[in-house]
Write a structure and sequence with these properties.
By secondary structure, the protein is an alpha+beta fold. The chain has two helices and three strands; from the N terminus they run ββααβ. The protein is elongated.
């Protein structure tokens, strides 16, 4: 879902990585997202952040409440697209 919504910036280079801290609700809706560790390239980092906002809601997160709370309420997503 994230890659479908990502617009690769011109300045993106192979191997770039940005870590995003994402907060979800059990329905998969994204409450908040922030950059926890940048790549060093502002355009790349912003493009990853924007892709998460465009997703808006992650589909297919049907699981037990404890599993969600332990693993998905607040998690770090390592965004390293294959170039």
């Amino acid at each position: 879902q994230l890659i479908r919504n990502w617009k690769k910036p011109i300045s993106a280079q192979p191997g770039m990585v940005v870590e995003l801290r994402i907060t979800l609700v059990p329905t998969g809706e994204i409450l908040a997202v922030r950059i926890s560790k940048g790549s060093g390239n502002e355009a790349f980092d912003r493009s990853a952040l924007n892709a998460v906002y465009k997703v808006g809601k992650f589909e297919g997160l049907t699981m037990q409440s404890k599993v969600f709370e332990d693993n998905f309420r607040l998690f770090t997503l390592v965004f390293k697209p294959v170039n």
